[in-house]
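As the next step, I selected for study one protein, both as residues and as discrete backbone shape codes, as given directly below:
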Amino acid sequence: MKSFSSRIIRWQQQHGRHALPWQSMAAGASAPPEPRPIPCGQVVRNPYRIWLSEVMLQQTQVATVIPYFERFVARFPDLPALAAAHEDEVLALWSGLGYYSRARNLHAAARAIVADHGGKFPEGIDAIAQLPGVGRSTAAAIAALAFGQRCAILDGNVKRVLARHNGIVGWPGDRNVETALWQLAESYLPRDAIEAYTQGMMDLGALVCTRSRPACPACPVNTDCVAFTQHRIAELPTPRPRRNLPERQVLMLLLLDRDELMLEKRPTRGVWGGLWSLPELVPCADAAAHCNDHFGFTTLAQQALPRFSHSFTHFKLHIQPVQMQLAPRQSTRPGQIWLSPADALDAALPAPVRRLVAQLELT
């Protein structure tokens, strides 16, 4: 039987993904090169695009990432352009993709590369791993795909492939299980064609060894896969232990004055850090009194809008929007902006705030 890695490489070259927008040699190229073994240390792709895609793909599916990636590189075609941008513009292009610390880290990393590496993307995996927002697996993916370096990756898709193929029991997020998976990932590394192998592992998990209803007959390593041969596909990998998400309640105020909406800049740390959002109150608060006491605004009319919910990784947020028509304001405080709903949609807004603003724009 051919080795695990050689089967993955051959499958990737024949059936893997070769037309993703970040797989081109240069920023303006429309098609990637033909799949081929990659000599170690040779730059074969655009590292800026590889890095950007890997950060965007953290906890996000390819189909969701592609339009964001294309808009992002259209505005910031290279690393110096991203480094020179204002954070608000970076966050605005990221708006809706979620996990906004990724965007802030991406921007900080671009500036660090310009300051510390002369604007040239670092090639060594250790240097890559030192960039803000780049962990062990992301650094390895960049080093392998952009520079042909022999490094193991272990993203969610790869964890699933390895856990099923080797019959690894236990939730992959557990430290001991993850350590065992890292050891496997490193043991399977081929001597050559690391780019095809790395892409193949990601492709296999995304296209064949999927979380539900995997296409096992099409898998190149099914003959010695423990989950497949022992009919344990449904139980591997072990699911994350179930837990009840905490729930929170909040009022969101849509403050309107002369057809403009007030937005507030959120603190850098915490949920929606650095984004423009709506004032928030606890559910039992008097919204009109709050506006008068904290902003000096007089409320002429207010209306409760339909309540809705938004789920985060660690909690569920129940939002009660309140639309408030104000008397003409006298001033604008630092950290606040007033925009028409149409212009507000171009700002860096959290997804539920964007939903509310879009509804305003339609009325």
In short: Residues 26-43 have pLDDT under 50 and may be disordered. The beta strands are 247-257, 260-265, 276-277, 280-281, 299-304, 308-311, 316-326, 336-339. The first helix runs from residue 4 to 15. DSSP finds 15 helices and eight strands in the chain.
